[in-house]
Design brief:
The chain is of the alpha+beta class. Helices cover 36% and strands 17% of the residues. α17 packs across α18, α23 runs antiparallel to α25 and α23 packs across α26.
Length: 814
């Protein structure tokens, strides 16, 4: 039977067809297709109810009746349709085990099936453009001209940099493959804005550096031509510019390997197509192995290498997530029609010029501050605006852009296409553009205003807003005759970053100042990460903290279900927490005769490891809140050695029980740490080496556009933290969650006054060790009584006025 893939409410499911009837359990609320489903509830089979399903579409009528969150409307439909469980209650959803099975983002189609479905004509234009780019580059930069190529002809930063080889490679040949992102350092040598040259410090000057780099490219081309790609890995002058070297060689030898230049992407496809582990291979050795692996399949005869690369990315894109941002096309959306017709989005800040002319973000930041410092006043706001503009250069094909007008209206949803960021000279104004494929079917008026949109041009789109916009998808339900490629869902980039850190080491610590949302983030991460890897179909967009879906997922993941431990276990370290709680120890237990006896009891971590060892195919995650409040060497004991990835599975003998014990590779530990209590520099060095550390800093973006009286909360937090940074450093900043109530920014003067008096001032007082002159430098002399060692007796209105005058007006005049 042909597999059917269903797309509904932003997720993909595999449909298990019915056998002509559907099943409702004795007391459950799900519709089922298979009698042997483990999720059928209600005890004896005689309590189930069976209903005829002649067309096999009862499930579809149920989910079409209302969005999944609208349980009442679904109950009304099911009651009218007679879809009742054994107790007479209407069903509201479909079973995820025997009807609509969520497809995780890691699912991959068999190669031959994917090839059979791939439409080669869909990439014909891309292949033609790639051939043209190769021919044009070979003509303008002939291979035999490299031996005498002048530095100015190669490097970024010169007067004619748009005609330089490096500019052509990164910005003028996008159809070949991307090497965008990061800084200009990947080009090995370039002219900075201050007219000094960047190059390897091993060379005395730019001429010596260029001589070595130029010869390196000549030698690399010779090696590739001879079929000895591995030799390029040994060319010292090119080691720090492997992606540039790879693309340069491809331009001259496009039949020798595929236009896939990033190390992680090359490794991803090698692992999918073979049993080889490419981890220890150099960049060019891995590139060579990928091409050989492709050739050995015998499935791509006559294909251009660009065509093969496009197929591989459509089959299994190694990028785990796409970003989603909102960008306003001019004030009140005034340039929207031009953007829609031209296939781009545009923003202002034209005085800064073409962003491709900057060789690094730092160089751009300096130029932006020089151009716009007077307009934006204080340094923190200028920096925030600069980051909005620079964000355009970070967007990659596949990322999503929402075009908005004001704070209520979504004009369209677009997908970033090649070449991405461009400086458009043909426009009269707002020359900064990003190429976009627009879809206006998502246009809508939001139910609630997004106040932040009124203050920023470019901003991240929160997951809660994504959930609001996506239900308006006019093609929410599709049935395909065969399995389509499973698109990568839009995920939270920070969660993806945390996943990379955790999977690399096996354990990670999320650290930052108080109030930055460490516990909030760790729980969202746990729900998303475990659900994805357990095939439960939950994306980051579904992990709204505190929602019914979120709580249900936490409950599901925290259920042991007969195992020694659940997939998710939560503990909090404290000074009294010890080895006995974590690994094993003697505890008083009931002896059955109204007395107590000491018994050896397994601790939390031991139980997790036992459960994981019996279930090796699935992950087990331990969340440790306040990890630095416990004595970690004492808590972990001898197991600190077994945490290392290369020692997972090795055994040691536990000293109390005498049992052999191991930490399975599918056990993960994620801790949270408040840096105001203890810097990571003070942690035991053996522990630091075994954990990845991911920093979480205050995010003023969630407060943009929100005011309490005259005080703009984002400006208040930015300026306050700028002052704390000067005096005490980044670890003791104030987190944004101090200014949130139930996830939303404060909107009441009395509440803000209470937060300042009862939460922020005591924290700053602790930081300053009761130095009230320092506290006055933080909050101002009109708020802090230096001589009286207290706050001035201000009512709420007076406090708000003083905050406004000190942290916004005065700050903007500095």
């Amino acid at each position: 039977m042909t597999e059917q893939i269903i797309h509904f409410e932003g997720r993909y499911y595999e449909l298990v067809p019915s056998n002509g009837r559907v099943i409702c359990s004795g007391r459950g609320y799900a519709l089922h297709h298979l009698e042997d489903c483990t999720h059928l509830e209600g005890g004896a089979r005689e309590t189930w109810r069976f209903y005829d399903d002649p067309d096999g579409l009862t499930w579809r009528r149920l989910i079409d009746s209302a969005p999944s969150a609208d349980r009442q409307s679904r109950r009304e439909f099911a009651a009218k349709a007679g879809l009742l469980n054994g107790q007479g209650a209407p069903v509201t959803n479909t079973c995820e085990s025997c009807l609509l099975k969520p497809i995780s983002g890691t699912r991959i189609m068999p190669l031959d099936v994917a090839l059979a479905q791939f439409d080669r004509t869909s990439v014909a234009g891309r292949v033609t453009q790639a051939k043209d780019d190769i021919e044009r580059t070979q003509r303008d930069f002939p291979r035999d001209g490299w031996v005498s190529m002048p530095l100015e002809r190669y490097a970024l930063g010169g007067k004619d940099h748009k005609n330089a080889f490096c500019y052509r490679l990164e910005f003028g040949t996008r159809a070949i493959g991307s090497i965008s992102g990061g800084s200009a350092r990947k080009h090995l040598i370039f002219l900075k804005k201050d007219k000094t040259w960047y190059h390897d410090a091993a060379y005395s000057d730019e001429r010596a550096a260029w001589a070595a780099v130029r010869q390196g490219f000549v030698d690399a081309c010779d090696a590739v031509e001879a079929g000895n790609l591995q030799a390029v890995d040994e060319i010292d002058a090119l080691r720090s510019g492997a992606s540039v070297a790879a693309k340069a060689c491809y331009v001259y030898f496009p039949r020798q390997f595929l236009p896939i230049f990033g190390k992680d992407h090359v490794h991803h496809f090698i692992r999918l197509l073979s049993d080889h582990d490419p981890q220890q291979l150099g960049r060019f050795a891995a590139i060579e192995l990928l091409k050989k692996t492709i050739d050995d399949t015998g499935l791509f005869a006559g294909w251009h290498t660009t065509e093969i690369a496009r197929f591989l990315y459509s089959w299994s894109d190694p990028r785990q997530s796409f970003e989603m941002v909102k960008i306003s096309p001019g004030e009140k959306g005034m340039h929207w029609e031009e953007c829609l017709a031209g296939g781009y989005i545009c923003v202002g800040w034209d005085e800064i010029g073409d962003l491709t002319g900057f060789t690094s973000e730092e160089e751009f930041m300096e130029a932006f501050r020089a151009a716009y410092a007077k307009e934006y006043g204080n340094q923190s706001k200028t920096t925030a605006k600069a980051r909005e503009l620079w964000r355009l250069t970070q967007l990659k094909p596949g990322d999503r852009i929402i075009a908005n007008r004001g704070i209520h209206e979504v004009l369209g949803l677009g997908t970033v296409t090649e070449p991405g960021y461009m400086w458009n000279d043909e426009r009269a104004e707002q020359h900064h553009t990003v190429t976009v494929d627009w879809d206006t079917s998502y246009a809508q008026t939001l139910p609630q205003p997004e106040k932040r949109w009124g203050m920023v041009t470019v901003a991240d789109v929160p997951q809660r807003l994504w959930r609001i916009i996506m239900p308006n998808d006019k093609t929410a339900l599709k049935i395909e005759p065969t399995t389509p490629p499973i698109p990568i869902t839009i995920e939270d980039p920070y969660l993806t970053k945390l996943a990379d850190a955790l999977e690399r080491k096996g354990q990670a610590v999320l650290y930052g100042p108080p109030g930055t949302g460490k516990t909030y983030t760790s729980l969202r991460f746990a729900v998303w990460w475990l659900s994805t890897r357990l095939g439960q179909g939950l994306s980051a967009a579904d992990t709204d903290y505190g929602s019914d879906e979120f709580r249900a997922a936490l409950e599901r993941l925290g259920s042991r279900e007969g195992r020694a431990a659940a997939h998710l276990t939560q503990v909090t370290f404290h000074p009294a927490y010890g080895y006995e709680d974590f690994i094993e120890g003697f505890r008083p237990v009931d002896d059955g005769t109204a007395g107590l006896r000491l018994s050896l009891v397994d601790g939390v971590f031991k139980r997790i490891c036992l459960a994981a060892g019996q279930d090796p195919g699935n992950p087990y995650l331990l969340l440790v809140d306040e990890v630095n409040r416990g004595d970690m060497p004492k808590i972990f004991g001898e197991l600190i050695t077994l945490l290392e990835r290369d020692k997972r599975g090795l055994t040691l003998v536990l000293p109390q029980s005498g049992q052999e014990f191991r930490v399975p590779p599918n056990v993960y530990v994620l801790g949270t740490m408040n840096t105001a209590d203890r810097s990571i520099r003070l942690l035991d060095s053996a522990l630091r080496r075994r954990f990845s550390f991911v920093e979480l800093l205050p995010d003023t973006g969630v407060l943009e556009g929100f005011h309490v009286g005259k005080v703009h909360l984002a400006d208040l937090l930015r300026e306050l933290n700028l002052r704390v940074l000067r005096e005490l450093g980044r670890e003791r900043q104030i987190g944004h969650s101090f200014f949130l109530t139930d996830g939303s920014p404060i909107n009441d003067e009395a509440v803000l006054g209470a937060v300042i008096r009862n939460e922020i001032f005591p924290l700053l007082q602790e930081y300053a060790y009761d130095d009230f002159s320092m506290l006055a430098r933080f909050l101002g002399a009109d708020i802090v009584d230096v001589m009286g060692h207290r706050l001035h007796d201000l009512n709420d209105e007076e406090l708000i006025d003083a905050l406004y005058a000190e942290l916004q007006v005065d700050a903007s005049q500095q």
